[in-house]
Write a structure and sequence with these properties.
Largest sheet: 3 strands, antiparallel
Mean pLDDT: 84
Strand order of the largest sheet: 1-3-4
Length: 288
Amino acid sequence: MVTPSGNDAASCRHANTALRDQKAATCGATGYSGDTYCVDCGKKIGTGSKTPATGNHSYGDWVVTKEATMDQPGEKERRCTVCGDMETAQLPKLDAPPCAHGKTELRGTKETTCSQDGYSGDLYCLDCGLLLRSGSSMDAIGNHAYGDWIIIREPTGSQTGQRSRECETCGLTEIEELPLCAHENRQLRDETAATCGTSGYSGDLYCTDCGDLVQEGTVTRATGLHSYSDWVDTEDGRSRSCQSCHHSQTVREEAPEGNRTVIVVVVLAAVLLGGVALIILLRKRHKA
């Protein structure tokens, strides 16, 4: 804003004003109402005045500075929390022996938490009710003491997860989102090997972290290749069986060439002898 000067300042109507140098009066100090200035031209258009002290102190609790006895009076004091004014008073002589303050208790204690200040508490005598010692403020811890994370919802490939933990001091709960599962750890399930006569299955791929089906398997064709056992000799050859589908294979073996020649000679000799025997038998019958 441009401040008017010369004739312009003289012509300012001082429509906008503000108070400056205000000072509130307290219980023991005077105040000041503040000077009035024009906001537009900056001219001081009114002088403030002093305001008297309120005289109303805000005292704290009485604190005994000298215990009273049966021979001497005691003293106590209290201080204004605003201006620090000290007020003292006399404690009358005791009609009986002074209290030994043997039984005491703390009052007004407040536990310090992560975010809230605490208070050590004021010490009072239970026998006479006297405030023996004022407490003090204790700063907040500031750092939460969180426990272990607890999984609320496991993440999957399509939905984020959640986990939470609680501060063991103040009970504050922190919730954190877990990213989608990256399916880094996988396992093949329901895999079936193809055999010579039966089709197989490549298996489904699952994520072991979230349990999602990552990839479906496919059917694999039968191999057609039998897995035969060793040959076993039989009466007319030898045989073997497939260890997977139990398909059997048999081979009939022929006699060696030399053995066949012997067999032919034996057969011809038998036929010849049979013919000779038949001729002799016919001749005997003819003579008879």
